[in-house]
Amino acid sequence: MTATDPALTALAQGWCALSALHGRIEAHIERALQAKHDLSVREYSLLDVLSRQHDGEGGHLQMKQVADAVVLSQSATTRLVTRLENRGLLERYLCPTDRRGIYTNVTEAGLRLLEEARPTNDAALREALDEASRNPELAPLVRAVESLNVPA
Q: Please, what is the angle between helix 6-37 and helix 139-147, to 10°?
């Protein structure tokens, strides 16, 4: 295959469309969360992921798992956790069975903010998808996103 191969060109165009859709959605949600809740998309995502932890077997995530879930490096995730901890939205504690492990929990204030921000996030996502669906290049991707049935 060469760089001008039609299959590669179509693949690259598909990737560009997917990247454009992601960028539009993220920017739209970012503006809404910042304006109404002083939260970034990454901060919201981190609170959301951590709020789903539980006390049962495998219920608490290690920092690498958290980083993977919010699509950040471990160092960026640690900085994000520190920022939210400084705002009183998260707290860290040592793993009771492995003193080397550190867990992070959402505080009551963090849970309240997350619940207040969830409708904003969901509405901004819906608006961004509706807007993107009017673009012929993005409409098939919007339909694909809407058809996904992925557990949280």
A: 70
Token pair of 89, please?
Answer: 């939205």
Question: From CA 39, how far away is CA 139, in angstroms rounded?
Answer: 28
* Residues ≥6 apart with Cβ < 8 Å to 124: 28, 29, 31, 32, 33
- pLDDT score of 96: 75
Mapped onto helix, strand or coil, the DSSP state of residue 97 is: coil
Q: What is the DSSP track for 65-93?
A: HHHHHHT--HHHHHHHHHHHHHTTSEEEE
Sign (positive or negative) of CA dihedral 75, 55, 91, 85 = positive
DSSP 13-25: HHHHHHHHHHHHH
For 20-35, letters b (16+ CB in 10 Å) and e give: ebeebbbebbbebbee
Q: What is the pLDDT of residues 29-73, one digit of tens each?
A: 999 999 999 999 999 999 999 999 877 777 788 888 899 999 999
Task: Report pLDDT digits (tens) over 21-41.
Answer: 999 999 999 999 999 999 999
**Which pTM was predicted?**
0.86
